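Q: Can someone sanity-check these two? First one:
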Amino acid sequence: MKNIRKVVIPVAGWGTRSLPASKNIPKEMLPIYNKPVIQYVVEEAIHSGIEDVIFVTNRDKSVIEDHFDYNLQLEGVLERAGKLDKLKMVRDVAEMVNIMSVRQKKQLGLGHAVLCAKELVRDEPFAIMVGDDLMFGGVPGIKQLIDVAMAEKMPVIGVMEVPQEKVNRYGIIAGEEVSPGVYRVNDMVEKPERDKAPSRMAIVGRYVLTPDIFDYLQKVTPGHGGEIQLTDAMQALARDKGMMAVKMAGIRFDAGDWAEYLTANIYFALQDEELRYELIGYLKNILQFQ
């Protein structure tokens, strides 16, 4: 298998779970501590050896691409003010990775968003990272999948164990564990009934796929609302050519879930030594009045 150099990050959705905050600001640009959500995702890709980021976007989300570009006016203000540490910070964001983008003109599901990137991916294996799923731990989330994909020469999906009462919110895999935390996928079911789920191993927003996934996506029968589901194409690919799953290590935050989004803010703020104890003090005071 060729090296994984590209990642597709779909960011064209409306972000309705994050309303009203996302009415005029893309949910991917909402801040978690001192960075927008999307920057954490891109940094994970970079730390995993990814060279090219492909945003699948829409006409109202150019601010995401702009975030990873130079802002000469701001840089001039910072330079004249002698704020060189902040100047370096904003320039580093612009220089961290090569950004490409393609428009998803109609929001027709995750599978359709991935299919929009076909001409930029070409004939290479590639990663997919959902733009509001944050993964943190020792080994970057997508790298855990890349390592297995390179070793097994097969597509790989990321999974995490979820409580039984939440299996109906996810795609769930059925598979056999072939080594600690690595599974051979036999089947996958999208949002099964709680008592019919084949396991509690849920598909989360990280994938490493081979370019033949595009052929399967083109054959998928659109479902409700004309949406093309990535899970349907992956299920066919797994059946025909095989697929692995990795039980991902680390912490996951769904930035589209308010409780998890706010928890992520606290988590990162606590990593700041200058802010940590002041924040803990405020939290203790707040809890006294609950």
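And here is the second, same format, sequence then tokens:
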Amino acid sequence: MDMKHTEKELQALKEEVNQMWKLVLSQLEKARQSFFGNDIDLAREIASREKRVNAFELKIDSDCENYIALYSPVAIDLRLVLSLIKIGSTLERIGDFAEGIARHVIDNDCNTLDASLIEELQLEKMFDTLIGMLYDSYVALESENTKLSGKILAKDEEIDLLYRNSINILTDYLQSNPTFIRCGLKTCLLIRKLERIGDHCSNIVEEIVFYVDAKVLKHGGGKYKENRLHIE
């Protein structure tokens, strides 16, 4: 088998995932911009670009499956292809949540949140942290540097804490502002979308660690499991 040819095919697969990653990162950045700027036109652009995200996932799935069928990869090459399939799927889910945020803006029925409430919920910090997590995980795959994994997983814990705090903040706010109940519930759903994006960024990191180090982080409470996989 021509090793240079298989390496070229692997690089093509990674490049496809990189292109999808850049698109999803752009979608999330624009979701932030549309939400805080109440930009309905930008939100509609995000919704229309979601089809491109879906198309990327389908192509990555197909190309990775074809690579496995043609070259029967083993060890690190197999781990890479399996990870790329899962990363593509996870990026698609993040794209879905970015579209969900855009739909919140497009609805245009709860876009006048009290500035003090936005500040107390720390929504800007949530958005900025998530964008940083998605970018850092992109760098981790590009550099094959799993030392970034701890930093990214720690940020997910910050997002989880902000989400938990938001429930108490919204509960107190709604008790004082009962006319805001419908929008309060929609705001809670939006924050839940942000929390799920953080979870998915952590899932991506787990796949990168699996590929590079052949270690499983999943269900390990954010710590490496010592057992190594048999496909090393």
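A (reply): Looked at the second one. Residues 221-232 have pLDDT under 50 and may be disordered. Residues 61 and 85 are 6 Å apart (CA to CA).
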